[in-house]
């Protein structure tokens, strides 16, 4: 009686509940409580919706929102990769692809294919939507670390040049938001919460 | 140099971080850990995206996603209202309206007006988008309670007739999803995790 597609979708919806347990290195604003991937994904979606006007190029905002909502789902299997961890970021792309196939693969075939394609588009970072989504993904931890006395920069000894290198891709998504981010980074050096 | 709109949007983005601290009564699937509003909102957005095909009427999915992402933001000021708490649900509509004006009011005027209108549309529950969004909001705790041996139903002594009354509005958003929900409710009675 119930359509098979609905049962597959419910299985997917139950499975992704696990994203709420994946802890990130960063902490909530003015807080020592770690953020989890589900909260992070919600926040990026809200950011994309309110900041869309600052994108360099016209963007399909629904696609950007889908991208940021799903971008970390692979971490249910593959775990969180810290952006300044050079070892892991080179070694777990295969693991993430397997995770995408397993988890999105719970959905009806056409839907699985669509979401895997959106996730891959985000990972490749080449379209205007992916560039803007990645700008959101870089901005949130910047707001967190500047509110937390340097946050993960201090905790893991990350200096200005590393932060600048990782963050400067933000300009590909939004020159305006990058101007703001660059100002925050420079102010962090002046305040002594980011080492030069 | 930086546009005023961007600074207003950043203030809003920082403020809504507080949604991550608002605890719901329900708990994660197969878990005793309470869910917070940010995780809940993320999950509803994912549900809306994958279940859209089952809506009774054509829906603007971007609007539904915006609705569920923002629907609980007022709880930053007004607190979580438990669905089976008849006292509070009658008394805090004014408080929620004040909260909407304060929090969305941090945004540039036009954007504030748009998001307040979407929140009010959700609250009124009359459009096809609002009906579908509310179906998502009713479905998630049903999945949680059935996975948690009755969850909040047992914890707060809520019986079949109350659950049925609250959940049956799901059929306004999706007859198909309501069929599934009704089956879950009836099975819960059979299993003895929901009292008749």
TrEMBL record, chains A, B:
Boundaries of each HD/PDEase domain copy? 33-151
Q: Which domain of life is it from?
A: Bacteria
Q: What is its EC number?
A: 3.1.3.89
Q: Extract the SUPFAM superfamilies matched here.
A: HD-domain/PDEase-like
Enumerate the InterPro entries for this protein.
HD/PDEase_dom, HD_domain, YfbR/HDDC2
One Pfam family assigned to this protein is HD_3
Entry protein name:
5'-deoxynucleotidase
Organism the protein comes from: Adhaeribacter terrigena
């Amino acid at each position: 009686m119930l359509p098979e597609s609905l049962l597959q979708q419910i299985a997917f919806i139950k499975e992704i509940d696990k994203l709420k347990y994946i802890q990130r290195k960063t902490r909530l604003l003015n807080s020592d409580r770690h953020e989890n991937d589900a909260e992070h994904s919600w926040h990026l979606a809200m950011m994309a919706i309110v900041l869309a006007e600052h994108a360099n190029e016209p963007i399909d905002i629904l696609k950007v929102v889908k991208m940021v909502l799903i971008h970390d789902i692979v971490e249910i299997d593959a775990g969180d990769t810290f952006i300044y961890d050079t070892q892991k970021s080179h070694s777990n792309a295969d693991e993430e692809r397997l995770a995408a196939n397993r988890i999105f693969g719970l959905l009806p075939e056409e839907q699985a294919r669509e979401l895997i394609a959106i996730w891959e588009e985000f990972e490749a970072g080449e379209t205007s939507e992916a560039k803007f989504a990645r700008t959101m993904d870089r901005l949130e931890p910047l707001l967190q670390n500047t509110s937390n006395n340097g946050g993960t920069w201090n905790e893991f000894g990350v200096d200005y040049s590393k932060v600048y290198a990782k963050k400067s891709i933000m300009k590909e998504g939004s020159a305006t938001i990058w101007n703001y981010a660059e100002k925050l980074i420079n102010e962090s050096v002046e305040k002594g919460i980011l080492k030069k």
